[in-house]
Amino acid sequence: MGDNDTTDSPAERYPDRATIRDVAARAGVSVGTVSKALNDNGRLKQETRDKVIAAANALGFRPNAMAQSLHRANSMTVGILSTDSFGRFTFPIVEALEERLAEHGIAVFMCNATDDPAREKQHLDQLLGKRIDGLVVTARRMDRRPAIAVPGNSMPVIYVFSQADDPDALCLLPDDHAGAVLAVEHLIDGGRKRIAHVTGPERFEAVTLRHRGYVDALTKAGLAARAGYYRNGKWSEESGRDAVVALFDGSNEAPDALFCGNDQIARGATDALRELGLRVPQDVAVVGFDNWDVMALAARPPLSSVDMNLRALGRAAGERLIAMIAGARLKGVERLPCSLVVRASSVPPPSPKTDKKTIEEDHP
Amino acid sequence: MGDNDTTDSPAERYPDRATIRDVAARAGVSVGTVSKALNDNGRLKQETRDKVIAAANALGFRPNAMAQSLHRANSMTVGILSTDSFGRFTFPIVEALEERLAEHGIAVFMCNATDDPAREKQHLDQLLGKRIDGLVVTARRMDRRPAIAVPGNSMPVIYVFSQADDPDALCLLPDDHAGAVLAVEHLIDGGRKRIAHVTGPERFEAVTLRHRGYVDALTKAGLAARAGYYRNGKWSEESGRDAVVALFDGSNEAPDALFCGNDQIARGATDALRELGLRVPQDVAVVGFDNWDVMALAARPPLSSVDMNLRALGRAAGERLIAMIAGARLKGVERLPCSLVVRASSVPPPSPKTDKKTIEEDHP
Questions:
Q1: Cα B269 to the chain's mean position, in Å?
Q2: Closest CA–CA distance from residue B65 to any residue of chain A (Å)
Q3: Residue B156 lies in a domain
Q4: Distance from B173 to chain A by nearest Cα, in Å?
Q5: Structural domain range at position B21
Q6: pLDDT at residue A141 in the model
Q7: Is A42 in the same domain as A83?
Q8: A96 plus A85 within the same structural domain
Q9: Are B264 and A204 a contacting pair at CB < 8 A?
Q10: pLDDT tens-digit map of A133-155
Q11: Is residue A4 one of the residues assigned to a domain?
Q12: Of A313, A346, B32, B110, which one is least surrounded by beta carbons within 10 A?
């Protein structure tokens, strides 16, 4: 973003019009920061604000266009189209996105197209009929999907937790590879040397990316990624239990750690280890993925897990969309960082970072 | 609905105007059926349709008002306001509601007020500024909440999975009492005589209602509701495990069945029973509540559970709102039926009704 590369510069494609992205590049800040600085909202250092205003002036950026669109904000609307059902992965995203847009006075229409192309078309027509100012497309799965065709490219579209088969689309995704590296490096730091990876079906891009992160972290530490230690199955507890039975059947050297592709697998694995008389984490450390409180906190012991920071993903989508509505031209796949939440399944004794949140409030 | 009681008849309160409710009462059908009949959509027998039209004519019901509002439908919008976060209970409701309204060409604005009254006010103002035609209020919890004040009562408001402290409000809720009766009668039908109830904190209305259903079903069967068999705790697996340890410590006669207030409690109870060497369901049958696939299907054995039919609740909210926008005046608490899904935790051998659905599709 700080790199003022003219090859792909929007200013080159639209030579008469500097965009918010150009301003951001020149000022060496993010598009979101430019938006905050020019709209005088959000907490920014005066120095940053001044730098942005100087960059905008130098480029002849028309703050009027921005001012106008934000003056209109109270009548602005954005559509959210889920191409699958809204599920536990999309809801935090949609919720945070809605919150971020509401802070700008932008209202959100939600539509749920449930994988039915005819219904999706009908929903899109309905949203276009409402003259929405932007569209966010989300999905439970991370499969690539056909790009949404907006007549005349009259409004910006963002894909979040979802990928379009169009290189000009802006797609926001969690950084699965880096998330896996975090998990495996944590296990290596804890002295584990025989780390297995138990995960879901390879047709999910997330499985491939997380596996690559696992292999890369092992390689970097000079450890081997043994073929027998990589196990694909379902995204279920049962699959986690089955993998443990196979990994610990005595036919191979037993692992001293499991990095699991989701928390359900990790939970099943933890149960199966206990039933084999193995202690977690003393004999085998376990790390899951998703940081799904229902699974991670109820497991015995509670699971360390990689958090995809879905709310941050939703807020980022809101930021990007506001910038695009204001004229920024953003494209490509942007991967946002995951973080690791450490609990008792990977460190003896329990880390002081142990999450004390209870799930009681989630009922009934 | 079929009872033409004039005391509370809207026709009496608004003598110049027969409403859709009057038509429904006269025809002996539901408001939804009247809506379908007069709008010529939905599948109805011609006989039903004729009966509705005759009733509408006899009452001088102005089909024009309905026709007009439905002619306008393509420009109609409805707001959904969640006074808590959108959670796993509200997703299916909101999703089904949105689907039902979309079938009528009605678009949905979603707002999430997260328990913050100032933010709720801001959201409400924003929705009113959009000139929405109706409002649906939902929440994760079933606490009573202050009624939403719509200036001039200019549009209908429905509370779903949420209750307002206003007797004139229409509130749609699952029938917790009847759901509990279903569960306990199923256990009694299976020959169980010592049925314990392990549930959440009493401050939840659902806990009180389900407990009452449990007591009523036992009483009807001539069985005692023993004081020591009713255990309140948290909505967690750990709480379910703790309850089993206490119930089976030998100080009382051990139960032969557990009716649990949610599936997390039921799952924890099932794990603890297995660890005590007791077989589920041979020694102790277990029934949960919520029919939450993630918990119910991953438990060993899979859990029988009461399903609140949240999607049906969402669809019903859509139906009622459409009727109210068309002029129906509905009020009071309406409780919709739960159903019981039988799996291996309560019947040996596994019932043919066992749910084979996998949760694999829910990822990542």
A1: 25
A2: 24
A3: no
A4: 12
A5: 10-69
A6: 63
A7: no
A8: yes
A9: no
A10: 899 998 766 567 888 888 777 78
A11: no
A12: B32
